[in-house]
Amino acid sequence: MDNAKAAPSRSGNPIRSVVIVGGGTAGWMTATLMAKRLEGLDVQITLVESSAIRTIGVGEATTPAIRDYFREAGLDEAAVMKASKATIKLGIAFDGWAGEGRRFFHPFGLYGTPSNGVAFHQYWLKMRAGGDLRPIEDYCLATQLAYANRILPPPRPAPDYAFFDWAVHFDAGLYAQYLHKIATARGVQHVDARVRSVALDPQTGHIASIDTIEAGVIAGDLFVDCSGFRALLLGEALREPFVEWTHLLPCDRAVAIPCAHAADGAFEPYTRSTALAAGWQWRIPLQHRVGNGYVYCSGHISDDEAVATLTKRLEGEALAEPNLIRFRTGHRRHVWSGNCVAIGLAAGFLEPLESTSITLIHSGIERLLQLFPDRDFDPALAMDYNRITTLEYERVRDFLLLHYWGNRREDEPFWRACKTATLPDMLAHKIRMFTTRGRMVRYEWDSFQDPSWLSMFAGLGLLPEKWDPVADFFTSDQIAGAFDRIREKIVDGVAGAMSHRDHVAAHYSAT
C-alpha cells in the first residue's frame, strides 16, 4: 500500500450563496471586495437593503488603510476620489485637548531618525531635558505639510523623518454609490427590500433565510449582517449580547451638520478635532462641503444644547438638518455566530475620534475572507475570528481612552470625570512604561503603531524625565547638529510642495 499522503481535495460542501443584509459603506465594501476575491468560485453574492431606510452616512474620515482596501478591491484610487468628492488627510489636529488654545497633531508619518538602535524620541527627550523645548512635531514632514496646507507625493524611499502616508476624506454616501456600481458590475445581486423576519434552522440554530416585504424569502449559506446599530441578524435574530464600554468612553451621542465652505475657508489636508465642554467637534473638509459633528455625553449636555452649539460653530451655510445619532460604545460578544458574521456598526462601535470605523469594516471583511468557511461552519473558524476581533476592538478602545484620560482641561466637569477613569491593565502598563523612561509597549493586534502613541503622549504632555541611557552615546552637540539638519530638510520639503487645494484640483476634482 502506498503510504504517500493523498492530495487534499476541495471541500465537498462549499459556500454557494452569501447574503449581505444592509448596504451603506459596510455592505457595499463587503460586496465589492468579496466579488473580487471570490471570483470564479461559483458563489452568488446578494445584497439586500431598503432605499426607504436611511443609513448613518456621516463617517467621512479614514486612516491610510483605506488605500489598501482600494488596491485589494481592484479600485482605481483617483476614480474613487473623484466620485466621492474626496480630499487628502495627513492626520488629525487636536485643538484644546491639551488645554485651551493649545494644538497638537497626530500624523500618518514618522518622527526623526533612529540611530545606534535608539528611537528618535529618546534623543528628543534628552535634548528637551537640556533645555531645547522645540516640539517633536518639528521633526515630522507630514505634520509640517499639514500645518502649511500642502501636499506632495510621499518620497520613496525616504529617511524616517520624511516618511509619511495619507488617508482620505470622502462623502460616505457617494462612496457607497460608487461601490454599488462596481459590485453589481461584478455580479452582485442587489435587492431593494425591507426585511420582515428572519428564519432560523431548528436543528442548527443557524440563519436559514430572511423574509422581505418586497422580494419574498431569500435563503443563503453565509449571512453577513451590515444592518447598522440595529444588528438585525446578529443582535435581534441570534440574540448575541452587546459588551458595553460606556464606563470607559462616556460619549453616547453625536449630531452632524454639513455646511458650505467659508469663502476664505482653509482647505486643510487633515481632520480637525476640537475639544468642547461635553465632548468634541469634528471638521472634515471635502471638495463640495465641510463635514461637522459634535460627539458628546448626554449626561453633561442636552441634545438641543448640542445642536445649538454645533450650529453656532458652522463656518458656512448649513446644507442639511441636524442628524442626531444615539450610540453605545462596545461590540457584540461574538461577532461571528453560527453562519452569520457582522461587519461595521452591527459588529460594534467605537466613536469616530480616530476615524477607525471604516478601518474596522475593512479588517472585518479581510478576516472573513481569510477564514472563509464551508457550509459545515467549523466552530474553530468563528472562535479565531472572534478572538482577533475582540483584541482589535480593545486595542482601538485603549488608544481612544488615552485621549480622554490624558486631557489637560481642568475647568469642565466632563473632562475632569474623564481623568478619573480606571484604565484597563494593559493600557495602564503601556502608559507607565512610557512615562517612566519613554519605552514603547506593543501588543498583538494594535491598530496604531508607535508613532501614533508617541504623538498622543507628547501632545498631552505625558513625558518621562528620563531617557534611554544608550542615547548618551552621542553628545548633545552631535544630536543638536543632526536635529538642525532634519529641520532644514523638512522646511525645504514643505517649500517645494503644492497646495492641497491645487493638488486636489489637478488630480481628484469631481468637476
The Rg value, from CA coordinates, equals 24 Å
| Major sheet characteristics | 7 strands, mixed
Highest-level CATH class of the largest domain: Alpha Beta
Give the number of helices.
15
**Uncertain spans:** 1-9
- How many domains, in number, for the residues? 3
Q: Roughly what is the average pLDDT, rounded to an integer?
A: 94
CATH superfamily of the largest domain: FAD/NAD(P)-binding domain
CATH topology of the largest domain: FAD/NAD(P)-binding domain
Helix content: 25-40%
Strand order of the largest sheet: 5-4-15-16-17-14-18
Tags for this model:
single chain, 511 residues, alpha+beta, FAD/NAD(P)-binding domain, 3 domains, seven-stranded mixed sheet, six-stranded mixed sheet, 15 helices, 34% helix, globular, disordered N terminus
Reconstruct the topology from this structure.
Blueprint: E1 17-21, H1 24-37, E2 44-49, H2 65-72, H3 77-83, E3 87-89, E4 91-95, E5 103-107, H4 120-129, H5 141-147, E6 150-151, E7 167-169, H6 172-185, E8 189-192, E9 195-200, E10 207-212, E11 216-219, E12 222-225, H7 232-237, E13 242-244, E14 253-256, E15 271-276, E16 279-285, E17 290-296, H8 303-313, E18 323-326, E19 330-332, E20 336-337, E21 340-342, E22 348-349, H9 357-370, H10 379-405, H11 413-418, H12 425-437, H13 450-459, H14 476-495, E23 498-499, H15 500-507
Parallel strand pairs: 1-2, 1-12, 2-8, 4-15, 12-21
Antiparallel strand pairs: 3-7, 4-5, 6-23, 9-10, 10-11, 13-19, 14-17, 14-18, 15-16, 16-17, 19-22, 20-21
Describe this structure in words.
- By secondary structure, the chain is of the alpha+beta class.
- The chain folds into 3 domains: 184 residues, FAD/NAD(P)-binding domain, CATH 3.50.50; 145 residues, no CATH class; 73 residues, no CATH class.
- Helix 1 packs parallel to helix 6, helix 1 runs parallel beside helix 9 and helix 9 runs antiparallel to helix 10.
